[in-house]
Amino acid sequence: MLLIKNGRVIDPGSRTDAALDILLDGERIANVGAGLSAPAAETFDAKGLIVAPGFIDLHCHLREPGQEISETIETGARAAARGGFTALCCMPNTQPVNDSASVTRGIVERAAASACVRVWPIGAVSVGSKGEALAEIAAMKDAGIVGVSDDGKPVATARLMRQAMDYCRTLDLLVIDHCEDPSLFAGGVMREGPTSVRLGLKGIPAQSESICAGRDVELAMLTGARLHIAHMSTRGSLEFVRSAKRLNLPVTCEVTPHHFTLIDEDVRYDTNYKMNPPLASRSDRQALIEGLADGSVDAIATDHAPHHPASKDVEFDRAPFGITGFETALALGLAELVHAGKIPLMRLVELFTTGPARVLGRERKLAAGQPADLTIFSPDHAWTFRACESASKSRNTPFDGRAFRGAPMATIVAGRVVYRREAAATA
Amino acid sequence: MLERLQHLLGAETLTREQVTFILDQAKPFQEFQRHPLKKLATLRGKTVALAFFEPSTRTRISFATAAARLGADTMNLQAEASSLRKGESLIDTVQTLEAMRPDGIVIRHNASGAAEFVAQRLAIPVLNAGDGSHEHPTQALLDALTIRDRKGRLDGVNVTILGDILHSRVARSNIFLLSKFGARITLCGPGMWVPRELELLAPNIRRVLRVEDALAGADVVMVLRVQTERIHEPALAAEEYILLYQLTAKRLKLAAPDALVLHPGPMIRGLEIDPAVADGPQSGVLEQVTNGLAVRMALLYHLVGGAPADAPHPAKERSSAAD
Fold first, then answer.
1. Does the CB of A282 have a partner CB in chain B at under 8 Å?
2. Within this chain, do residues B190 and B119 fall inside the same structural domain, yes or no?
3. Domain shared by B149 and B166, yes or no
4. Contact at 8 Å (CB) between B53 and B110?
5. How far is B38 from B71, CA to CA, in rounded Å?
6. Element (H, E) at A229
7. Cβ of A194 under 8 Å from any chain B Cβ?
8. Are residues B278 and B220 in the same domain?
9. Which residues span the domain enclosing B156?
10. Three-state DSSP state, B38
11. Nearest CA to CA, how far is A56 from chain B (Å)?
12. Catalytic residue among A181, A298, A303, A373
C-alpha cells in the first residue's frame, strides 16, 4: 500500500481541486479523502505538489519493431515516465507496420516485458499504411489496439477513409488521421510563409492540413464514426473541428506542445525545427491556444518522434521530420499555457488526462476502485532540460538547454512508482 | 568599424560597410585582369577546396581562376565524380576534404542552408557559392560592383528583377545586398514565383504584375534564368513566359534611357531575354563575368589569406612594381 499525503489533488473528471490524500492498494486506488491514515502503508509526501490522474499521451512513436537504433519500447517508456506519462498510444509506422494482430501482439508482449508505463498500440488503417486495402482491424482490436491511423501519412483517399470509418463505427474504434494533402505538401520542409521564403526552404501551405481535415469532418458526418485529428496545427483545421462539435459529431483533436510553443519564425537551419506538421504561423499558434482554452481541443499529445542523431545531422532538406517530446511536454504546458495565464491548471491537467481518455472512450478519474495510475508534479520546480540526460535513445529536440518552471516529480503506474525525480524534496 | 568576416555565408548578414569594403578591394583586382601576366604570389602555399555538390560551370571556373591568379592551389570536388553518389553524407564529405588541410572551402549545394551547416562544423573559412534557393552572395557582390561601375553608385538605384524570384538564390542575395544601400527593388514574374512574402525580405520592395509597369524608370534590369531544376510547380509553357515576361528591346525602352541589363547566367537566349538585348550596349553580362573574378579574388585574399583590412593591396603593389 502507498499513501500519498499532503498533496493538492486535481481531478478534472470530478472537478476536484483540494488538499486530499490518496491511498493505493496494489494496482488500484483504495481511497481518496482528507487526512487519510494507513499505518501499514508506505508514505509519499506530496507537500507542495499536484497529484493528478495518470497522464495519457495519445500520439507517440516508439520505433519498435524495426527502428530500435532510434528508440525501443523500453527506452521510450522510460522517457515517457520521466515526462509524467502513465500510458502511451504508439503509432503503427514501425517496420513492419502494425497492420496485423501478430505485430500488435508483439508490441503488447514487448511492452509487458520491458515498458514501465502502459502501452496502447494504434493499428494501421490500411495494409502497410499504403492506402489501398483495409488492414486486419478487428483482429488487431482483439489483440489490443485502441484506434487506427496511417500516421506519418494521411489516409490516402476519401474513399478509403469513408470505408475505414464505416468499418470502425461497427467496431466502435477511433479513427485517427494525420491530415495532409500530399499534392500541396509536395516536398515541403516547413510552413509556407515569410520565413520559408527568406530561408529558401520549400513551404507547405497551412491548407495542406485543413483541406484534409475538412474532408475527414465531412466523412465523419457521412458515417457517424469517431474521428480524431492528430497533431492539429492550423486555425483552418480547428474551425472544421469546431463545426463538427457544434453538430455533436464525435470528432476530437489534439495539439502538440511544440505547436503551442514555437512558430515558423523560430525555424532556422537546424533540423530540430523540422517536424510534420511543420511549426505554424504566429496566428495559427494563437488559434491553437484559444482552442486549448475554450475546450475545442481535447488533448495535448507529444508526437514524440525520436530520430537517431546521424539521421538528423544532415542538410535541412534531407532530414526526417520529428522531434522528441515526452520529457518537455508538461513543462511546456505549464510555461506556455498556465504560467502565461492562458488556461487554469485544472484545464492543463484535463488536457493530459480526462481529455485524452475521453478521446479513447475511457474513464480517467481519482476514485476508489480506479487503476492506481497517478502523475505527481510540481508547478514551480526550477530545472533545465538537457537532451543528453534524456532516457530516450534520441536527442532531436529544439528545447535542449531550456530552463523551466514546473516538472513531473513522480509517475505511478498500477501502484508502482516508475519514476521519481531525484531533486524532489520530500520534507 | 569593419567587422572582420570569418565566412561568407550570405548577403543578408553582411553590413553595408563590409559590402563597400569588399567592392573597394575588388577594384584593383578588376584592373589586374588586364595584365599580360595574371599571377600573384599572395596566396602561394595556400589551398582552396572547391566543393561543388551541384553542377556549375561559371562559378566553379571563376573561383578556380581567382584562386590560381592569387597563387593558391585548389582541390576539386565535383558532384558527378564524388563519393556522394555512393551515399556519403555532406558532413562526412566535407570533413574528409578538411582533413587534407585546405585553408578555405568554397561550397555549392542544392540544399538551402548547406553553407551554414558546413560552417558550423568546420574550422576553416567557408564561402557560399550558392545554397539551394537561399543565397548566392558572390553573385550579388559582383552584380553590385557592376552596377556601381556603370551607375556610379548603389544608393537609391531602381532595380527591377524579372523571373522566378521564389526559387532564385541570386534574387534573394541581390535583394538583401542592394536594400542595404536604399535601393528600390521591383519584383515581377508569374504569380506563383513572386509570392507576397518576398516584400518582407527588406524595406522598399514592391511586386508589380505587368512587366511594362515593372520596367518603368528602372536603372537596372536584372533578368533571372528560368530555373527548371529548382521549380517544383508544374512548369510554365515557355511560350507563355516569352509572351508575358521576356525582356525585349521594345520593353527595355520603358526603363531609364541608360538602364543596365544584368543576367547571372547561364542565359537562354530567346527565352527570358531577347538576343538583341543580351548583346546590346546596355548589357553588362560580360562585365559581370570579369567582375566575378575580381570579387572572388578579393574574398579569397581576405578570408583565406587572412589579410588585415588595412594591408597594402597585392594587385596595387604588383602594378607599381611593373611600372
1. no
2. no
3. yes
4. yes
5. 10
6. strand A227-229
7. yes
8. yes
9. 137-285
10. coil
11. 37
12. A303
